Amino acid sequence: MDSKTGPIGVFDSGFGGLTIFREIKDRLPEYDYIYLGDNARVPYGTRSFDTVYQFTKECVFKLFDKGCNLVILACNTASAKALRSIQQHDLPPGKRVLGVIRPTTESIQQFTRSNVVGILATQGTVLSESYKIEINKFHPEITVVQHACPMWVPLVENNEIHTPAAAYLIEKDIKALLDKHDKIDTIVLACTHYPLLLPVIEQFVPSNIKILAQGKLIAESLDHYLERHPEIESLCSKQGKMEFYTTDDAQDFEEKATIFFKEKIKAKHIAV
What is the pTM of this model? Predict the structure, then answer.
């Protein structure tokens, strides 16, 4: 195994992964990180499996080139459509890639009492059935009910969270999910943008239903992963540094990133 230490890579198709990265950084501040957003080719949610796999692989290898030994796919679509193929066919010796779906699905049992779980996600994640497959792998007794919310990401990216249009669309989608099964007691926000809509989502979800955002679950899972895998943890450098890259305009990325990351950042353009 390559003995050179390097930062932990965090990849997303755009800005949404910054909500995951925020939680990771808060829980594990001592490590170095590189965040890469493929904003030039967003959205991934509507693209084919092959395209998402190709784009994700290119970005993951760019992070490997930057010295990362461990990369987190902080993107549900990339985790659903590309993670397994990359893990099985493309990993160089000593490199690891982890996704956001398994940490969420492994822990779902501790939240549901009725064993009926709702998934709100992009079209790509819903069509992949990744949440259904992964939850039923660990917990076959759980019924998984899915609903795609294609308009939610644009609401966040256009900073229209607190508009009447947002309220209308969110209420409509939540009603569509809850109408599919009357025993749903837990809803997973299976897209990294959706936590920013939480104040609006909570207005339309009955108070007896738990709403799970992924960030804290992912950060906790990564912490435990590093404890269980000292051979990987020892390859992660620890100077508390952060770098941000985007495949699109760096200034635009800096301006919008604050909404997701909750602090000002400096970004650089990178070609993939």
Answer: 0.91
Instruction: Pull the structure tokens for residue 22.
Output: 């925020």
Q: In what order do the strands lie in the sheet with 70-73?
A: 96-98, 70-73, 8-12, 33-37, 242-246, 267-269
Token pair for 233: 């943890």
Contacts of 110 (CB under 8 A, 6+ apart): none
Beta strands in the chain (DSSP E): 8-12, 33-37, 70-73, 96-98, 116-121, 143-148, 186-189, 210-213, 242-246, 267-269
Of 59, 68, 149, 191, catalytic: 191
Catalytic residue, chosen from 59, 68, 75, 149, is 75
Q: Confirm whether 236 is a catalytic residue.
A: no
pLDDT value of residue 247:
98
- Phi, psi of 22, rounded to the nearest 5 degrees: -55, -45
Query: ∠ CA 223-227-231 to the nearest 5 degrees?
Result: 120
Furthest C-alpha separation in the chain: 54
For residue 3, what pLDDT is reported? 65
- % of the chain beyond a pLDDT of 90: 89
Which amino acid makes up residue 163? Answer: T
Residues 6+ positions from 251 with CB-CB distance below 8 Å: 267
- Are the beta carbons of 236 and 226 closer than 8 angstroms? yes
Residues 6 or more apart from 196 whose CB is under 8 A from it?
19, 156, 161, 259, 260
**Tell me: the pLDDT tens digits for 199-241?**
999 999 999 999 999 999 999 999 999 999 999 999 999 999 9
CA distance 87 to 196: 30
What burial class does residue 251 get, using C-beta atoms within 10 Å of its C-beta: 0-12 exposed, 13-18 middle, 19+ buried?
exposed
